[in-house]
Structure formats: structure tokens, C-alpha cells
Write a structure and sequence with these properties.
alpha+beta; eight-stranded antiparallel beta sheet
């Protein structure tokens, strides 16, 4: 009978321990995220790509004094929006990814004159840009263990994480 009660207690408490562990990992990732973004000594290498999207893309690689990559920032530009992806690394392993998608109300070149010529009542207005964000947290093996999607929903397990990790 003791084994059964012990087994039941273990099963019931396991999610609590996993949650606490994930909370600690997320706090460590957030600290590293802040440290990287506040590190003025990181060197930057910018690379411009013209064939990655309709209006090109640029990538900035941030390295520490030891030449280790700490952050990679990529922005894909298009006429109707842009996609910004940031990847954060610690000990050469991915720990966090932050994606922002910007959807413009009209193509960025669609000014008032263009709109009027084509009978459109609306032209590009940056204040009408819709921004969605996705956050991806990775464990020490660079496995995705938490995804906070554009609807601020937390996905912490299941096939969705496996598929999303392949996509990233």
C-alpha cells in the first residue's frame, strides 16, 4: 500500500517540479537575454542579402570578445511587411528565439497620390501596422520546451512543439 500511495504522490507532484524547473530555466534565459542586449562590447557583423525576400534581408551577427556568437538578428523586408527574427545563444547553443511579424495596411510605397490614382481610399500608414510576436524557449540541449504564440498562448508540450522546432 505504501508503494501505491508513494507512486500517486510522485505522479501528482511531477508536473509541479517540472513547472518549477521550467520557470527557473526561463528566468535564466531572460537574464541572459538582457545581458546580451545590454552588452556594449559585442562586435557586430552585418550581411545584406538581396535574394532572400522581395526587398532583401539583412543579418547582424553579434559576437563577444572570444568571437563566440551571442545573437543573430535577421530582418526580411517585403512590400507588405517585414519579419524580424532574433536568435540568442549561450555556450554555442540556442536558448531563445524571438520573432516579430509586421503586416502593413498597404505596401510601404503606396502613398496618398498612388492611392488616389488607383481609386483606393487608403494608403500606407505605419501606425496601422499589425505586429505579432512569437517567443521560443530552448533547454540546454537546444530543444524547444516552451512557445508563446502570437495570441499569447503558451504551448509547453506535444506535437506542436516538435513541428515548430523543425520550422524554426
Amino acid at each position: 500500500m505504501k508503494i501505491t500511495i508513494l507512486t500517486i504522490i510522485t505522479i501528482l507532484l511531477t508536473p509541479v517540479f517540472i513547472q518549477d524547473s521550467n520557470t527557473e530555466i526561463i528566468e535564466q534565459i531572460r537574464k541572459e537575454f538582457k545581458r546580451i542586449n545590454n552588452d556594449a562590447e559585442l562586435t557586430k557583423q552585418e550581411i545584406v542579402f538581396y535574394d532572400e525576400s522581395t526587398d532583401g534581408a539583412n543579418m547582424i551577427v553579434f559576437r563577444d570578445k572570444g568571437n563566440a556568437i551571442k545573437k543573430v538578428s535577421v530582418i526580411y523586408y517585403g512590400e507588405s511587411g517585414k519579419l524580424a527574427k532574433e536568435f540568442y545563444l549561450k555556450n554555442d547553443k540556442l536558448i531563445f528565439a524571438f520573432f516579430q511579424s509586421y503586416d502593413y495596411n498597404r505596401p510601404y510605397y503606396w502613398n496618398e497620390k498612388e492611392a488616389e490614382e488607383f481609386g483606393d481610399s487608403e494608403f500606407f500608414d505605419s501606425s496601422k501596422t499589425e505586429v505579432s510576436e512569437n517567443r521560443y524557449y530552448f533547454n540546454s540541449d537546444s530543444r524547444l520546451f516552451r512557445w508563446i504564440n502570437e495570441n499569447n498562448e503558451t504551448i509547453g508540450k506535444g506535437i506542436d512543439l516538435v513541428d515548430k522546432q523543425r520550422e524554426i
